[in-house]
Design a protein that fits this description.
The complex is a heterodimer of chains A (about 425) and B (about 325).
Chain A: H1 84-109, H2 123-132, E1 138-140, H3 146-151, H4 156-164, H5 197-210, E2 217-222, H6 229-241, E3 245-251, E4 254-255, E5 258-259, E6 280-285, H7 289-304, E7 310-315, H8 336-339, H9 345-355, H10 361-383, H11 409-425
Parallel strand pairs in A: 1-2, 2-3, 3-7, 6-7
Antiparallel strand pairs in A: 4-5
Helix pairs in contact in A: 1-2, 1-9, 1-10, 2-7, 4-10, 5-6
Chain B: H1 3-17, E1 21-25, H2 41-45, E2 50-52, H3 57-70, E3 73-77, H4 88-95, H5 98-101, E4 111-116, H6 131-135, E5 141-143, H7 148-160, E6 165-170, E7 210-213, E8 218-222, H8 225-237, E9 241-245, E10 248-250, H9 254-264, E11 267-274, H10 279-291, E12 300-304, H11 314-317, H12 321-333
Parallel strand pairs in B: 1-2, 1-3, 4-6, 5-6, 8-9, 8-11, 11-12
Antiparallel strand pairs in B: 5-10, 7-9
Helix pairs in contact in B: 1-7, 3-4, 8-12, 9-10
The chains are: A alpha/beta (about 425), B alpha/beta (about 325).
Chain lengths: ~425, ~325
């Protein structure tokens, strides 16, 4: 056997080292069994006082806060005891997100836009959080929190205008679809670079604290992107300055095709990332809207009373592909979404409302029909402003707007060059 | 004033006028910065407006972007420009694009101060000139002063600017102009007109170059430390060169450059950064595009080499009077 250059082979009686490369439990074609996913009973988790020191409830970073039990009752210390009206509003917002996603996904498949991302199966994460936060609190979302906008009352037509990059898109077609910016709804401009919003949320929260404001910040990232350096910088800053910020890690098990093991899930939980920083860490059932609400409300109170940051891991499952450009059948078992042991967040909240006598199947069917109609009407309205698939809808020269507050000479020259080029080409661009 | 005092004064006068301005960075608070540029500011403006940060450049800039989104005007310090790379993503993908991608809903009016450049025996990690990386990015402005007077006026303009600005401070000339002769005693700013700095408020607009010496034989384009080295070479050789201190690289004062090159017919570009894809390449291209029929010789570049900054060999690396003098001879030959 020839020696490989530069490689030292084991000496003496030492066993050869081996490199561990994580592998998900199921691949396409495999039968799925989630029996080993540890899911503690609902109501079992204790609820510390929001003023308690983070080290006094480290256990909550390793277990799971759950409110809805298998009989669809809300149980335990974390039960937020919401009014039926609030529960119905949350249900409706989650159903609206699902209907919106469905319709926009189809619009992408129909060639009306270039790209879309659904949050199927994770609607509770954003919607319940939005209900637990104040409307003035600032959100620094990732790309799967459209539920924040729906729950905060952002008109769906505006969201669709952005998705279609049409004449009604206030971002002038400069951003990828779903990368919304909605300052009026406390929704920061979304970046495609992962977790860059984490330190930004901390900065916003620090600014709010330094100005003796009462508003707090919240931010979201996926479990895969907790590996980014920004995540760790953000946690360091947040703990150092006790920033009034809520970090949400949406553990939906898959980062495109990489399962959560590649972000470290085999060794620990994502909520436990908080422990080393001295930050409060909570792990919650992300498909339980009441648990998400309760944890967010707890963290918000902690932040608002100068108790500092909280990191919440939302244990959930990405039922669909990562985006319209992804094909999950290529890397995971088709049986996974249905076998997911925490069920469907909308169905669970609906079942709860039914069990407590505040809802029934007929009303659910009516609601589903209504939200579908609302989404359809919004789509019709938005498409009056055009769709990306039918050609660009922005005035050409707007391409150079907004790089700087005032346009410097080199951009003015390039703009003129482009206009001359387009004029000479005779291309049928829709120009103002 | 020396340049550090001028920079300190710029922050002081702007902070007094605008409570939205905050100064942040490693060691900038209680200690006043490793170069003392922020000395006394925390005492005057308090810990919430001038504060020390953890050692995480991506965190410093990311937090500053979030503060901007809130409505503050952060002035983060990156202790040495060599350490700005971990913050690149926050600067390039976030601060620089925020206005564009949010339709103007959010902006990042932050000014990143950072000492840069060599000639202080700082080795590979305390000597680099990364300005070319930022001039390549759409959405950030890049400013480099060459005197205390300019440093104060430009920094005030940068802090008040509504776009993100990278403000590189040539640390070799913090305490006095450096003429390129490393073995001769250094001059002090008190003996230089650029060291006369008003204590009050004044601005030097971004995008305006300064003709520091009028001449007819050749145009020398430079910024930062190299302005002084060029001036010394001109004094040593007696060449009637026009020296243009660019002051801001983006936005660039193309009108002043064009007018000068058209007059002299020759153009030489001097910078300390590595040569390949350096800002000199952009300047050479612009001059060629705009002044080709006025040129009597090829555009000449004098730069650092395409190597890391070598500690004990830094004077061989540094584009000093010998290298510049030879280039002058070459360009004037034709």
């Amino acid at each position: 056997m020839g020696e490989e250059p530069g490689i030292v082979h084991p000496r003496g009686n030492l066993p050869p080292l081996s490199l561990h490369v994580p592998e998900p439990k199921f691949r396409p074609g495999d039968a799925v069994d989630f029996a080993d996913v540890a899911i503690p009973p609902a109501g079992a988790a204790r609820r510390p006082d929001t003023a308690d020191a983070a080290r006094d409830f480290t256990d909550l970073a390793y277990s799971m806060v759950r409110v809805l039990d298998e009989n669809h009752q809300a149980v335990g210390a974390w039960n937020p005891r919401l009014s039926p009206d609030t529960l119905r509003r949350m249900l409706r917002h989650m159903a609206t997100v699902r209907a919106f996603d469905e319709r926009m996904f189809r619009a992408q498949r129909q060639g009306k836009t270039s790209f879309y991302m659904k949050s199927l199966g994770e609607e509770a994460v954003a919607v319940a959080a939005a209900h637990a936060l104040d409307a003035e609190d600032m959100c620094f979302p990732s790309y799967r929190q459209q539920g924040l906008l729906i729950a905060r009352g952002c008109p769906m037509v505006d969201m669709m205008n952005q998705i279609y990059s049409n004449t009604g898109d206030k971002l002038q077609g400069k951003q990828l679809p779903i990368m919304y910016s909605e300052k009026r709804f406390g929704f920061f401009s979304i970046s495609g670079n992962l977790t860059t919003q984490y330190p930004q949320a901390v900065g916003w929260a620090m600014a709010s604290a330094s100005k003796s404001d009462t508003r707090i910040a919240a931010t979201w990232c996926g479990e895969g992107s907790t590996a980014e350096g920004d995540f760790h910088s953000a946690l360091t800053f947040a703990t150092v300055y006790r920033a009034p910020v809520i970090f949400n890690v949406v553990n939906n098990q898959w980062a495109i095709s990489s399962f959560s093991g590649f972000a470290g899930a085999e060794a620990t939980t994502f909520a436990a990332r908080a422990v080393g920083y001295g930050i409060a860490g909570l792990r919650v059932d992300g498909n339980d809207a009441l648990a998400v609400y309760a944890a967010t409300a707890w963290a918000a109170e902690r932040a608002r009373t100068n108790g500092g940051p909280t990191l919440i891991e939302h244990f959930t499952y990405r039922t669909e592909g990562h985006s319209t450009s992804d094909d999950p059948t290529q890397y995971r078992s088709a049986g996974e979404p249905n076998a997911w042991p925490l069920g469907d967040p909308i169905r669970r909240l609906k079942d709860h409302l039914v069990v407590i006598g505040e809802w029934d199947e007929a009303r659910q069917a009516d609601m589903d029909r209504e939200v579908a109609e609302e989404v359809k009407a919004a789509q019709k309205e938005a498409e009056k402003n055009g769709v990306l698939g039918h050609g660009l809808r922005q005035p050409l020269d707007s391409l150079f707007d907004g790089v700087f507050e005032e346009m410097p000479w080199h951009l003015r020259e390039q703009r003129q060059m482009m206009i001359d080029e387009e004029t000479a080409s005779g291309r049928p661009w829709d120009r103002k | 004033m020396n340049m550090i005092q001028a920079i300190n004064s710029a922050m002081d006068v702007t902070m007094a006028r605008d409570p939205a301005i905050v100064v942040m960075g490693e060691d900038v608070g209680y200690f006043g910065g490793v170069f003392r540029a922020t000395a006394g500011l925390q005492k005057k403006y308090g810990k919430t407006r001038v504060f020390d940060t953890p050692i995480t450049e991506c965190g410093i800039i990311g937090v500053a972007v979030g503060m901007s989104a809130y409505g503050l005007r952060p002035v983060p310090e990156i202790q040495f420009a060599d350490y700005i790379y971990p913050a690149l993503d926050q600067l390039v993908s976030e601060a620089a694009r925020l206005r564009y991608r949010s339709g103007g809903e959010f902006t990042a009016p932050l000014t990143v101060r950072s000492p840069f450049g060599g000639g202080i025996f700082g080795g590979q990690t305390h000597s680099q000139s990364p300005e070319g990386i930022f001039t390549h990015v759409s959405g950030v402005k890049t400013v480099i002063p060459s005197t205390p007077y300019d440093a104060k006026g430009l920094l005030i303009a940068a802090i008040e600017d509504n776009d993100p600005v990278i403000f590189f401070e040539p640390k070799r000339i913090y305490n006095g102009p450096f003429n390129g002769h490393w073995d001769r005693p250094a001059e002090n700013w008190s003996k230089h007109p650029g060291g006369e700095v008003p204590t009050g408020y004044y601005k030097i607009p971004l995008g305006k170059a300064n003709v520091v010496r009028a001449g007819e034989a050749v145009t020398m384009l430079a910024y930062g430390t190299m302005v002084h080295v060029c001036a010394q070479v001109v004094a040593d050789t007696g060449v009637d060169a026009e020296i243009v201190d660019l002051r801001t690289l983006v936005p660039l004062d193309i009108a002043t450059i064009e007018a000068s090159v058209r007059k002299t017919g020759r153009c030489m570009i001097v910078h300390e950064a590595t040569r390949t894809s350096g800002f000199g390449a952009e300047l050479a291209a612009l001059v060629q595009e705009r002044c080709f029929y006025h040129l009597e010789a090829p555009v000449e570049r004098v730069t650092g080499f395409d190597t890391p900054y070598p500690h004990s060999l830094e004077w061989a690396y540094f584009p000093g009077p010998v290298r510049i003098g030879q280039a002058l001879k070459k360009i004037l030959k034709d």
